[in-house]
Every structure is written in structure tokens, then in C-alpha cells.
Design goal:
By secondary structure, the protein is α+β, with helices and mostly antiparallel strands. The protein is built from twelve helices and 35 strands. A hairpin with a 5-residue loop joins β6 (129-133) and β7. α1 (13-24) runs antiparallel to α4 and α8 packs across α10 (449-462).
Length: 588
């Protein structure tokens, strides 16, 4: 045993002061005795039990000295020697994916892991703790924290984010935090293959805390729906991951109103799968599939789908410059080249049409992108391109683009960019975007804004639809928003506020799967957040450790404080001192 705060030894003056005080206090008490007979009797009693009498007369002194000496002992910081990992960080890597919600007896895997983390913190008091959560973007919750209250509070606030764990990326992030130091890493997940550590480092010891229970699960593996002339048709693929036959019910609901449209019963063999179709459903913009079955994982028992005209591809007039198709490919769009007749067949579909055929401006139900004109001749022009601050140019400025010639403008359209006093880019009331120049008449393809402009056009044309797209939990994606507003606000179907994103910033989808509303400049659209396919399969395995055998369990002698043990005895001594003083009374 030793003392870590020897500097506090100066406090010994307090018990010494009390000792000196008792040396100089009066050592007798005045007692009136009516007869020498009683005097002799009193003296005999004192001589018969001198130690007890001394204790009774000096109880207050002994209690005060004991309390002061114990307090001095605590202030010196007593400790005992203990073995602990030599110079190592302690890092918790916490899986927060949706599959951690699976569990039995009312306790999820995630809850059990939080209890294990809490116990490890108790067992490693005084050690610095780092906490990292998994996901597309691993999060550093704590770094080298020693305050027990802060650590326990951070563990208590951890929650499931539904995002796939991406354990490989998370471990790479963890290694960047460790740098060249040694560390003990505790990974809390349901299952982790040993091959992940094939490129491990000898400076890190891994403890994998896995779920050893093979939990029963029935999931909605696929959910699709299409509009028909008579309404809507839907199909659901169910997968049974349990080792026994199961019975259940699959329901199709109106996702916006929560009303049940149809339901069917099913029976599935162990480790089997089945397809269930629903025909003649009423026309809906959003559908929800709800699985009613007894299993141990609820997150994959529902799925959502939007049936609006979600733009996913483009068809470019084969007569236009090839760089236009290249620009669409650069922003990740599926793009094909087509003739005028082929494009007319796609007019009423969720496909962006790009042409110089002006007749498309009066045909079809959806807006198009018109580049050039086939019904007019261009004339030379000079000057600098100027825009009116339209959202189309929020991330694709075109001030440095050179244009040699322009086509005549459309009188009924709004001009959003011009050269001198002549319109360059226009927008119709329907939402059509018109570029009054052929690509060959500009040096636009030489500028970074060229593909960005086509991305902005795609988002602008998409904004005419009530469907904003399908996302995975916490997916980050750029969404075009109006520059003169505060940005995009996100609400759930109960009109409860979720988040907001300023104009020009990346949009991050909500964590929990479901249907959400996006409101931008009073324009409302719907998005669907879908559970990732990897999170519909539960994993289980044994817990294990990697790295300890190769390094021989290096240990160093540490200090474990024991001063707190004496706090309660000090309190008891103070209470006893107060009681003795109370019984004797206070002198005036």
C-alpha cells in the first residue's frame, strides 16, 4: 500500500492541535459530596474500573482524534497496487445497426451490450475510455474520457441508428484514432467474422462481444408495386430464417392514412420463402407492407414504397451532341439515345427527355429539357452571361461560359439567364428548361459547371413530382433547394418535425425507416427510407479475442485507490461525537 498525495500530510497539525488542547484543559470536575462516607465509596468505584472511567470521561477526545486521523489518512490518497494492461487505450466499437434491436425476453442485443459496457467501465475505473459507433460515417462519441459520470451518461445515450454497420470502414476509422499507440478494443455486435482482422496490428488486442443466440426471424425481403389501369398491384417476398414452421399475416396499408387495404394469411416452412401477391388494390401514392408474426426481430416486419413518377433515367435525342449524354452519365443517371419517335413513346413516363424538338413543349404530361431549337435560326451574340439567382445556378454558376450564338426566345417563358439583353436560358410555367443555344455554340463543356448544371436540371424537373426518391437510413445526398428560403424541412407523417437542412448543404435522410415529408418553399414531396438488405438477416456467433496470445498479456503495476472505503467510518465517528456532546450538554 502507498499514498499518492503525501503533500497533504501538513493536515497533521489539526489532530496535534486537538491533542494539545486536551493537555491544557482542566482535569477535574467539581462534585459536592455530603459525607466522607460517600467520598470513599466514589473513590472505590473509580479505582475498581479505571479504564472504563477514563473512557467515559474522555470519549469525546478519542472520537475526535479518530475522526481527524482517518480524515488525514484519506487526504493522503491511500492506494493498493494492482495489475492492468500496460499503457493501453480502451476503445468501445459499438454496432448501432438495425439488427441490434433483435433480442429475447424483452432485452435487445443492444441493451445487453450497453450493460456489458457499463460493467467494463466499472472494472476499469480511472482508465481513459473511447467510444466509436458504426455506420456509413463512423462517429467518435468520446475520446480518452476518464470521468466516470460522463462515460456512463454517454453509454446511456447510445441508440440504434438503423444504418448498416460497415464494420470494415469503422475499424479503419478506429485505427486512425489509435494511431501508433497500443489499445484494447471491445467490439459489441451480433456477429463478426475473424477474417476482418487479417490485416491487424500487433499493438491492438480485440475482444469481440457477439450474440450467441440463434434468434428466430421472418422478414419482408422484397416489396414492390406498380400502377395498373384498374388500380395497383403489389407483391411481397417473405423469408423465414427460423428453424421451425411459422404462420402469420401480411397486410397492405395506405402508408399516408394508416388504413388497411387488404391482408392474407400464410404458412412457411423452416428456412423457406414465399411470394404473396395483391391485385386490384386501390390507387395509392404510398403503400406499406406490415408483417404480423411471432419472431424476435421487428425492424424488418414492415416495408414502404412510393408509387409516384420518380425520375431515374434520361433519353437524349440522338441528333444532339454526345457530350450531353456524357454529362448525364457523370451525375449517375441511366441515359440512352433515341429518335424522335422513340422519345414520343416515353413522353408520359418518368424519363427526362432532352431534345431540340420544340413540339415536345406542347406535348406530354411532364416537363422536358430543350437544348437549341429546330424551328429557328441562331444569330451571333456577345457579352457576359448573367443569371437572376435562380436555384438552377446555386451550385452551377455559368458567369464564365462563352456563347457565340443564340436562338430566338419564347415570349411566354421566364428568362433565368441572359447575355446582354437577350435570353439565354428560360423556364416555362410547366417547368420546362430551355437552353437557347446548341452545345457546339459554347465552351460550356470545358467548365466544371457543365455536368453540375444537368444535375440541377434533373433535380428541378424531379421537383415537379410528389415523390422525392428512396433513401437508406442516414444516407447523405445533395438535393436542390430554393436559394431564397431557409432550406428543406423534414416531417414525419404525423407532421412532427424531424430535421432541417439549409440551402446548398447535403441532405441526410432520417434514421428510422418510413415515409417522410420534405417541405421546400411551400412545395411538399414524399421520400421513402428503406431498411438496407443486409439488415434483414440476423447473425450470431461466439465471442472471442484476438491478439492476446501473441503478446503474452503484458501487464504493468497500477494504483487502485482505497480512500473512499474510509468515508463511511468517518461519518459514523462524527455522528457518535455529536451524540456524546449532546448527552453531556454544552457548557456556557
Amino acid at each position: 500500500m502507498g499514498f499518492s498525495h503525501v503533500v497533504n500530510s501538513w493536515t497533521v497539525i489539526f489532530p496535534l492541535a486537538v491533542l494539545l488542547y486536551y493537555f491544557f484543559r482542566k482535569r477535574y470536575e467539581t462534585r459536592a459530596i455530603s459525607s466522607t462516607l460517600f467520598w470513599e465509596q466514589s473513590m472505590r468505584e473509580t479505582k475498581a474500573s479505571p479504564f472504563l472511567k477514563n473512557l467515559q470521561q474522555n470519549a469525546l477526545f478519542y472520537l475526535q482524534m479518530a475522526a481527524l486521523l482517518l480524515l488525514l489518512f484519506v487526504l493522503l490518497g491511500p492506494f493498493v497496487k494492482s495489475e492492468q494492461a500496460a499503457g493501453r487505450q480502451i476503445i468501445f466499437v459499438v454496432d448501432t445497426s438495425a439488427s441490434m434491436l433483435a433480442g429475447e425476453d424483452g432485452a435487445s442485443i443492444f441493451d445487453v451490450n450497453k450493460q456489458e459496457m457499463t460493467q467494463l467501465v466499472e472494472d476499469n475505473k480511472g482508465n481513459a475510455i473511447t467510444i466509436i459507433t458504426t455506420g456509413k460515417e463512423p462517429d467518435l462519441v468520446l475520446r480518452d474520457e476518464t470521468n466516470q459520470e460522463v462515460i456512463q451518461a454517454s453509454i446511456g445515450k447510445l441508440s440504434v441508428t438503423y444504418d448498416h454497420e460497415n464494420m470494415g470502414k469503422t475499424l479503419e476509422f478506429m485505427k486512425s484514432v489509435v494511431a501508433d499507440q497500443s489499445a484494447t478494443v471491445h467490439i459489441f455486435t451480433d456477429y463478426l467474422d475473424r477474417s476482418v482482422f487479417s490485416d491487424g496490428t500487433e499493438a491492438i488486442d480485440y475482444y469481440v462481444h457477439a450474440s450467441e443466440s440463434n434468434l428466430a426471424n421472418v422478414s419482408i425481403d422484397k416489396f414492390g408495386a406498380v400502377k395498373t389501369s384498374g388500380g395497383t398491384e403489389a407483391i411481397v417476398k417473405l423469408v423465414n430464417q427460423s428453424e421451425k414452421e411459422v404462420d402469420g399475416i401480411i397486410q397492405i396499408l395506405d402508408a399516408l392514412k394508416g388504413e388497411k387495404l387488404e391482408e392474407k394469411k400464410f404458412t412457411m416452412k423452416d428456412e423457406g420463402e414465399t411470394l404473396i401477391s395483391f391485385k386490384d388494390l386501390p390507387s395509392q401514392i404510398a403503400l406499406q407492407a406490415q408483417l404480423l408474426v411471432e419472431d424476435q426481430y421487428d425492424a424488418d416486419n414492415e416495408a414502404f414504397i412510393l408509387l409516384g413518377d420518380e425520375i431515374s433515367d434520361a433519353m437524349v435525342d440522338s441528333q444532339l451532341h454526345e457530350l450531353i449524354r456524357k454529362a448525364f452519365q457523370a451525375i449517375g443517371m441511366d441515359v440512352t439515345a433515341g429518335s424522335i419517335n422513340e422519345m414520343k413513346q416515353r413522353q408520359n413516363t418518368a424519363t427526362i427527355l432532352v431534345s431540340n424538338e420544340t413540339s415536345f413543349l406542347q406535348e406530354g404530361e411532364h416537363p422536358i429539357l430543350l437544348i437549341g431549337r429546330n424551328d429557328a435560326n441562331a444569330h451571333p451574340v456577345s457579352g457576359v452571361v448573367e443569371d437572376n439567382g435562380d436555384v438552377l445556378f446555386s451550385i452551377a454558376p455559368i458567369h464564365d461560359v462563352y456563347v457565340s450564338s443564340l436562338y430566338p426566345p419564347f415570349e411566354e417563358m421566364d428568362t433565368i439567364a441572359s447575355i446582354g439583353n437577350e435570353p439565354f436560358i428560360q423556364r416555362s410555367k410547366r417547368g420546362d428548361i430551355v437552353v437557347l443555344a446548341d452545345i457546339e455554340m459554347t465552351d460550356w463543356p470545358l467548365h466544371p459547371s457543365f455536368p453540375l448544371f444537368f444535375w440541377s436540371v434533373t433535380e428541378s424537373l424531379r421537383s415537379g413530382s410528389s415523390v422525392g426518391g428512396t433513401f437508406s437510413p442516414s444516407q447523405r445526398k445533395a438535393i436542390l433547394s430554393y436559394v431564397d428560403t431557409k432550406g428543406i424541412e423534414v416531417f414525419n407523417l404525423k407532421d412532427e418535425y424531424e430535421a432541417s437542412f439549409a440551402s446548398g448543404t447535403d441532405f441526410v435522410a432520417p434514421q428510422k425507416p418510413g415515409i417522410y415529408k420534405l417541405i421546400d418553399n411551400k412545395r411538399e414531396s414524399l421520400i421513402s427510407v428503406q431498411l438496407e438488405q443486409e439488415e434483414k438477416r440476423l447473425g450470431h456467433g461466439t465471442s472471442y479475442k484476438i491478439g492476446m496470445e501473441s503478446k503474452g498479456n503484458e501487464k504493468e503495476v497500477g494504483q487502485k485507490s482505497i480512500g473512499w472505503i474510509f468515508l463511511l467510518p468517518i461519518l459514523l465517528l462524527l455522528v457518535m461525537e455529536w451524540e456524546v456532546q449532546r448527552r453531556r450538554g454544552y457548557s456556557n
